[in-house]
Amino acid sequence: MNRPFYSLIFFFFILSSKVFAQTWTDAEFKKANTAVNADYLTSEEKNIILYMNLIRINGEKFYYTFLEDYINNYNAKVKKYRNYNELKLARNNPYYLSLLKHIKVAKNLAMFYPDEKLSYLSRSHAIDLNKNNLDTHESSNGDKFNQRMSKYFPNKTMSENIDFGYSNSLDIVCHLLLDCGVPSLGHRFNLLDQKYKLNTVGVSIQPHPSYSWCAVIDFVAQQSTLNSR
């Protein structure tokens, strides 16, 4: 199929978010799809970057469109469980409410661009988590996050998001964006970053023995000509 990747996403969005479908343009999807030619990433890994960039193009619009899709789909899935009222994402959820305040400032922010070396590091850590059944930023050999990253990106500001339980890109991004149960909201603030100028990302989705799936997203701030493209 030769149609651009972002056009397929746009068509899906028209079907799934009827009320707001016309508010996203092909130009916005094209701008957000910085990973389109990153052949070292899977389609879902490319989609993670696309969705993160859509947040940065217009966070409030993302909140009322794609995030709404995620919440509606999530609530439909957990409705079968006896403790549905505890599991569901209610509109009075404090993390949902606080997100609107934070996400409103996300407007025309710098895009995230994929990096092959950084994605290799993300993949290596995700594979390590899978192999050793871990759920931490620390490697199985005892290396802290900054130790394993600074070997390849010395003297750079960096951060990392790890998500467990999802293999779908939209689910991963929305789960990290809401950051329910994480008082520091560290995952959310990485996605909305302006302070540290994080602009380069590595992404990997891998199986996990305890959580079915894990996704590692690494961020680095480095001087680059990418944003002038």
UniProtKB/TrEMBL annotation:
<dbReference type="Pfam" id="PF00188">
    <property type="entry name" value="CAP"/>
</dbReference>
<protein>
    <submittedName>
        <fullName>CAP domain-containing protein</fullName>
    </submittedName>
</protein>
<keyword id="KW-0732">Signal</keyword>
<feature type="signal peptide">
    <location>
        <begin position="1"/>
        <end position="21"/>
    </location>
</feature>
<dbReference type="InterPro" id="IPR035940">
    <property type="entry name" value="CAP_sf"/>
</dbReference>
<feature type="domain" description="SCP">
    <location>
        <begin position="105"/>
        <end position="211"/>
    </location>
</feature>
<dbReference type="InterPro" id="IPR014044">
    <property type="entry name" value="CAP_dom"/>
</dbReference>
